[in-house]
Structures are given as C-alpha cells and as structure tokens.
Amino acid sequence: MEHSADGLEQLSVVRRCFESGKTRSLSWRKSQLKALQRLLVEREKDIFRVLKEDLGKHQAEAFRDEVGFLGKSVDYHIANLDKWVTPTKISIPLLGFPSAAQLVQEPLGVVLVLSTWNFPIALSLEPLIGAISAGNAVVIKPSELAPSSSAFLATNIPLFMDNEAVKVIQGGPDMGEKLLGHKWDKIFFTGSPRVGRVVMTAAAKHLTPVTLELGGKSPCIVDSISGSGDREVMVKRIIGGKWGSCNGQACLAIDYLLVEEKFTTTLVDLLKTTMKTLVSEPEHISKIVNKHHFERLCSLLDDPLVASSVVHGGSINHEKMYIEPTILIDPPLNSEIMVREIFGPLLPIITLKKIEDSIDFIKGRPKPLVIYAFTNNEALKKKIVEETSSGGITFNDTLIQYVCDTIPFGGIGQSGFGKYHGKFSFDTFSHGKPVVRRSFLTEFSFRYPPWDEDKLQL
Ligand code: NAD
C-alpha cells in the first residue's frame, strides 16, 4: 500500500477502485443498495441502540427519522435506478440537422461525505444511497459528537458493503481537515455554515463541486386558523416540528413562531395544553447531545430580558442535562436567541401587529432552510411564495417535506446550496453529459473562412 503523510493510505484504495470502473456497473450499484437494505433490516436493533445512546432517541422516533426513512429511500432508488441511468434524448434544432443527442449520466468519481450528529445514521447513509446509485466510490466521515453511531457505521458498513469502494473514517474536526486536504470529485457536507465555509475553501483548491446542507433560523408563521379541529392539528404539528424530532436539534426544526398579537394568548394556551400530553415526559423527547450544547442553550436564557420573556417551561436539570420545552414571548430581537440558530427545545414567539408583517420580518434575515406557515388565507400563501426566499416552504405542516422522495431537499444562501433525496440525490452525484452524434450528410461552406461578401448576405 502507498504511504501517505497523513496516514490515509486507504484513500488510494478507494480511488483505484473507482478508476477500475467497478462502481459504474449497474449490477454493482444495485448489489450495494441491496446490501444497505440488508444492513438496515439485520442491524435495526443496533441502530436503535446507538441512537438511544447518542441522542436518547425513542425507537419510534428513530424508526420514523432514520431507519424507516432510509429503508424507504433505498427501495425508491432500487425501483427507479434503471430509468435514471438510461440516457435521455435531447432534441436538436434544425441548425444541427442531421444529428442525434443524448444526455448520458456519468458518476463524478470519489466522493467525500462529511455528516453531522443529529441524525447520525440518516445523514451519513442518505447521501451514500445517492452516491452509490450514481456509481461513485464513497468515503464517509460521520460526526464525533455521535460516537456510538459513528462506531456502528465504521463496524457495519465494511461487513455489508464493498470495502474497496465504501469507507467510513471516524474522527473529529482534525480528521475532517485532513480529509479536506485531499483531492475529491465531490464533497457533500451537512453541518454548520461556519464549517461549510471551511469545506468550500478547501474545495476551491481543486475546483471540487460541493453540496452544502446547512441550517439556520427557520420561521413558522402562525395565522389564526379558524375551526377548533384544524387548530388542534396545527398545534400538534407545531409541537412535532419543534420538540418531536431530535428535541429541536434538527436543521428543519421550527426556530421561532411569528404570530399576530391578538392571537398570541389563544395560541400559547393551546400549545401548553397539548404539550402536556405530547412532550412533558423527558423519555419521549431526545436528549441534548452533550454538555457543550446544553450549556450553550442554558446561556441563551442567561440574558435577563430573555429570561423574563419565558411564559412556559424554562426549568433546567443540570445533572440530567434536561431543559423543559420552553416558550418565550418577544425576547429582544438582538439577543442571541433571536440572532443564532437555537437548535434545542426553546421556542420564541415573535408577535406582530398584522400577520402579513411576517414577510418583511423574514426578508430582513438570512434565507432560511424552510419557511413553515399555518394559514388558510390563499392571498397570504401567495405573498409568502412570491416575496420570500428559502430552501422550501411547507404550508400547514412541519417536517413532512423531508420524507417525500419526490421533493428536493436543500437550502439557499446561508442555509446552503445543492439538493438531494430521491432522483435529486442521483443527480447531485452525477454529471449529465451531453453526447452529440453528427452525420457527414450535409455540409455548409458558410461555416468556415475565408469570409467574403456572399457569406455576409446569409
Ligand atoms: P459542524 O459543522 O460542527 O460539523 C459537521 C461535520 O464537520 C462533522 O463531521 C465535524 O467533525 C466536521 N468538522 C467540524 N469542523 C471541521 C473542520 N474545521 N474541518 C473539517 N471538518 C470539520 O456541525 P454541527 O454544528 O455539529 O451541526 C449542526 C449544524 O448542522 C446546524 O447548523 C444544523 O442546522 C446543520 N444541519 C443541517 C442539516 C441539513 O440537512 N441541511 C441537517 C442537520 C444539521
């Protein structure tokens, strides 16, 4: 094996494997997707265990957000791969007659996947599914902040998948930096905007394309929906979108609510009542990932003006690193909680004179990964779609967009760029190469010099 100054000799194995052409074959791709399917089925209990250890995820949540989500995704790729790899016809204008053209999908090469800790299995394996489907070789570096999940991947991927083409390398930022020092054909990064900049800077050296799946403050506009049944469903969906998926530590979690002043008391009362039944037991919500993040979240409440805005919850158990699901009304807009991504169980409500003011509020801030809005007002929906910019918009629900394979997932501006899931994952890891086939049948002399007056007449 070749010697590498940083000890990453295994990377040359992956590179040689890709160059051998092995990963391009459709049968190899399918066999690897099926191997991943088997891993998800045969190691399901282990996945539940590691997600419990790292994040206190309940098995039901772990199935919905990781195991089940991935199983559905890999099935979708297996079912559609024949179609996706088939070259598509490109129509040619008369100018090119007679000729034919096709768009042929080719793999990018050796791909680096850097993932994060909040969905440590899903955010490592969902990009892997796309990269394998598209015929690439892959190196995954999971997050050091979810050590059991990271070790699970490092142990089990080699047991199920092709060892030369798929590697898991464990480690933290130092290992991330070492890996970024190498040349890749694509870097797929999920994490913070801060490290996103580090990734893009490293990628620039080799002109490597990147996808950045970042986060930010995703707002949720809450209009005064009428009808008690609809309101009940709305409140459950808001609670699910804040505390129901990794306890607010999700890129797609609601960061804060935008509500009309006159509807605020009614909404808070509804939230409090429903939170009692859904999220009052710590064992039903994920834990805060570690001490650093626990202290970061506690410090958001240190500001006296923020602390005095708490209207529900707010109790903290330092020993168990538990923060009660907490609602705040109108914390100062320049306080940390309203400037940084919260990524935890604190939910500020910002009150507005009119619900339409939410549009200017959102436009005055970095582009979020998603805008949620609960409303039956079609004029307001139209305004939100036409006047704001975000990775996506979901009306009258939260998180659901993430699990639909037909919906592209990704950010814009500060929330990242590039998209994946379903066919969009295949495209993210492919180069659509136009192939033009001309015939020798017709030829026009005006294409070539020498140029003269006759040619100018054409
Ligand atoms: P992070 O950016 O600190 O870490 C992400 C990955 O990068 C980890 O594997 C880490 O080891 C590695 N890393 C850290 N520093 C590095 C460096 N200097 N060089 C190379 N690699 C380095 O991520 P985080 O802050 O722990 O994750 C939370 C963020 O991720 C939030 O902003 C959240 O919104 C975002 N997120 C986005 C998505 C999405 O799909 N858009 C999903 C989950 C989380």
From TrEMBL:
Domain of life the protein comes from: Eukaryota
Cite a single GO BP annotation. Answer: aldehyde metabolic process
Q: Where is the Aldehyde dehydrogenase domain?
A: 18-433
Catalyzes what?
an aldehyde + NAD(+) + H2O = a carboxylate + NADH + 2 H(+)
Q: Does the keyword section mention NAD? A: yes
What GO cellular component entries does it have?
A: cytoplasm
Asked whether the keyword Cytoplasm is assigned, the reply is no
Protein family: Belongs to the aldehyde dehydrogenase family.
What is the name of the protein in this document?
Aldehyde dehydrogenase
